[in-house]
Amino acid sequence: MTNTEKFQLAQQAFLNHDYRQAGILATELYMGKKTLRTNRFLFKVLIKEKRYEDAYNLASDYLQEYIQNNDWLEEYIETGVWAGKSILIEQLLIQINPYMKKNEQKKFEKVCALSNYWCEKKEYLKKIERKLRYLGSLSFNEQRVIYQQSYALSKNNWKKNIGELLENEDVHIFLRVTILDDLRKLKITDELVFLNIQGLRNKVVPANFLSLEDTEVYDYYQDYFKTRVEKGDILASTQWDDFKLKLMLLYPDFKGAKKVLGEYKKWYALFKDSTHRNDDVSDFVDKLEENILIWQTLTK
Q: What domain of life does the UniProt record list for this protein's source (predicted)?
C-alpha cells in the first residue's frame, strides 16, 4: 500500500467517525515521514479522541506554522489549555505578542480565557490549587509532579498560589528556580522574595531578569564547551549538560555566587578540581552537587 492510499484510507475512516483507525493509519504515516499535511490531519484525529496532550505535543513539531495561521493558532491555544498547559500557552502568547495586531492579541487572549472557563476539569484544578499551597510539605518527587500539573491552572489562579513558594526552604531549589523563570516568562512585575541556593532571601522582580540562556555567564561557557566539542573532546557535551545544572542553581544571582567562587571564568576549573578550593568553596560546591544528585534521581 502506498502512502497516498494509506492517507486516503485514514481520511475515509475519519469521515466514518472511526477515529481510532484513522489515528493508527495517520500515526504510521507520520512516523514514517513527518509532513505538515499529516501533522494537521493527525492533530484533528487526536482532538476527536480527546487526546489533548498528544495533540498539543504533536502540533509543537510545527509550532511556527501553527503560529503563522490564526485559525490553527486558535486550535493550538484551545488544545493546550485542555491539555493542562494553560501557563505555557500564556507564555507563548506573551512571546509572540509583539508580532500580533491589537485585534489578534485580544482575540487570542479571549480564546485562552474562554478555554479556561469551559474546561471540564474544575474539581481537578481545585485539588491542584490546594496541593500547590502546601507544596513544601510534600516529597520532592510529589513537588515536581504537582508543579507540572499546576500549569493547567489559569494565569490568575496559578499566580495567586505560586509567589510564596519562591521563599519556602522546603520547596526544592530547582523548583524555586523554575518558578522564578516561569514568572519571568509571564513578565510578572510584582516584587517577590526569592530564597537562593546560598540560603539568602533577596527581593526580585521576575520580569527584570534575563533568561539563563541570555546571561553573560551562560554565553561564555556555551562557547567554551562548543569549542571543546569541535576539537573532538568526547566528554565536553556531557560536562556541559552537568555544568548547565549548576548554572541553573546559581541563577539569577550570579553576583552572590561570585562572592564565594570568584570570577565566573574560573568556575568550571573550581568545580572540576578540588585542590584549589578553600573550605567555603568546597561547602558551596558540595551543596550544588547534592541538590543536583537529588534532582537527577527524581527525574530519571
A: Bacteria
Summarize pLDDT for 230-259 with one digit per residue, the tens.
999 999 999 999 999 999 999 998 888 888
What predicted TM-score, i.e. pTM, was given to this entire model? 0.88
Question: Cell 487526536 maps to which residue?
Answer: 46
pLDDT at 110: 78
Residue 85 DSSP one-character state: -
Task: Calculate what percentage of the chain has a pLDDT beyond 70.
Answer: 97
CA angle (108, 113, 116) in 5-degree steps: 125
So what's the pLDDT on residue 274? 75
Distant-in-sequence, close-in-space partners of 72: CB < 8 Å, separation ≥ 6: 40, 59, 65, 66
Is 80 exceeded by the pLDDT of residue 65? yes
Per-residue DSSP letters for 162-226? HGGGGG-TTS-HHHHHHHHHHHHHTT----EEEE-TTS-EEEE-GGGSPPGGGSHHHHHHHHHHH
Q: What is the pLDDT of residue 30?
A: 94
Q: How far apart are CA 117 and CA 56, in angstroms?
A: 19
Distances from the Cα of 121 to the Cαs of 29, 128, 134, in angstroms? Answer: 33, 11, 21
The DSSP bridge partners found for residue 41 are none
Asked if residue 243 lies in contact with residue 225, where contact means CB atoms within 8 angstroms, the answer is yes
Q: By the 8 A CB rule, do 213 and 238 touch?
A: no
pLDDT in tens, 115-168: 665 566 777 888 888 899 899 999 988 999 999 999 988 888 899 889 889 999
The dihedral built from the CA positions of residue 211, 148, 57 and 69, taken in this order, carries a sign that is negative
Select from 135, 166, 164, 160 the least CA-distant residue to 149.
135
For residue 291, which of 143, 140, 183 has the smallest C-alpha distance? 140
* 210/254 Cα distance (integer angstroms): 12
Burial zone of 187 (CB within 10 Å; 0-12 exposed, 13-18 middle, 19+ buried): middle
